[in-house]
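Entry 14. Structure prediction run on the chain below.
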Amino acid sequence: MLPKRHKLSRATFPSRKEQKLSWGGKALRIYAYVSEQSVVPQFAVVVPKKLCKKAVSRNLFKRRVLAAIRVNMNAFERFSCKKYVVFPKALTNDIPQKSIEEDIRSFLREYAKK
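Output returned:
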């Protein structure tokens, strides 16, 4: 789990109108927002009920994504974007942990080039 200071709250959640960088991988879609207010990177994982009906499965997917992010936290701290929202692309039960980790690493590699 991530510390509370690294999680987006409802008050700090970015609006749809804010400027963002969109990235799509095999299993995840990541939106990165530039924020002058945030000093540390903050994350949210959004899992629609259409993709996963059971709350247990949605929460399990969120924990798996946040665990993969925690491992790569140092890389996120170097970027100018400080707010990140992560969405699954397919049914959460079908996405293995390895695919989540690969998508996060490839996002970091691609974003580091920009």
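The longest strand covers residues 81-88.
Filed with the rest of this week's runs.
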